[in-house]
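hi! just following up on the protien thing from before. the input was this:
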Amino acid sequence: DYPDYPSHEQVCAYLRSYANHFGVVPHIEFNTSVESIERTSDGFWDIGLSNGETRRYGGLIIANGHNWDPKFPEYPGQFNGLILHSAEYKTPDVLMGKRVLVVGAGNSGCDIVVESAQNAAKTFHSTRRGYWYVPKYAFGKPADVVNETPIRLGVPIWARRMINGMILNILVGDLRRYGLKKPDHKLLETHPIINQHITYYMGHGMITPKPDVAELCGDSVKFKDGSVEPIDVIVYATGFKISFPFMDKKYLNWNKTHPELYINVFHPDYDNLFVVGLIQPDSGQFWIADIQSQLMARFIKAMQANSPAAAEFRALKASERPNLGGGVKYVESTRHYLEIEHGSYRQRVKRLMKVFEKVAVGIK
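and the predicted 3d structure came back as:
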């Protein structure tokens, strides 16, 4: 039994339970990391391990995630206090009784700024732009559950945006009342921020909104509106770099910013290279990684059977570059390079699975 919004401990417990239940654990080699990956002239993959061993494999699936290599902003000046990235933040103990600045308005940043309001002496929240803040519940149900109904009914994006905007206007109101900026983009054009406590604490004066940082001034921080605040701790919730340190970019078909893969999974040329989870969905991620894996398994099985379906799919992944936004034009930023609209993505994967229906026996 899990709550609507499980804690990180509960999510970890679920993953351990899943691995044990499905017999995954015996296939995991612990305390060993991948240090290097090279493609051989005959199409195999040589994997260099931290124990000095090199192994050769006929296929490679990368699932190291993209929210692990911290991205830090660059500001002029120096800061004398404690600097953390959200990736390093574990408990609010480091904030207790301090004057805290949280930089960044992603979901991690908003969660941390709420914990800071509950524990710090003073909390400031620096953001560069206005965002849409979505309460965790609407009509007594989790927000994503409410949003899922019109998606499954095929309601077009413009209508969903209008309906959701009306609901947000009722539940949240004008964000400028809290000292926040008005969003400079349409609803759904940035990754959703699910947090109903941040405006509550702003309304109680326990979180002070601030614009972007202008300069670090030793024991204080100057902001772009000219204000200066003494600060003890800075938490940068400023996102992550898309990073595969064990592998040359040439193997992943990189453009200037990220790998270009068919539906963010399949290499256009290499049939034995896959990446799972290289997405930033406007929903949960586990189930999307699951359907990605199902489609990947069907392609592998079709290749093993030398099925015409494999050739059909091979042609698709080599030629198509579908837009995964589902009609949403996302704000141009590093945060949105991997953003997908989950409803249209799900439909696309389902259509692709039909290519392999005749060879999918044994894959559930």
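The radius of gyration is 23 Å.
Residues 286-304 form the longest helix (19 residues).
cheers
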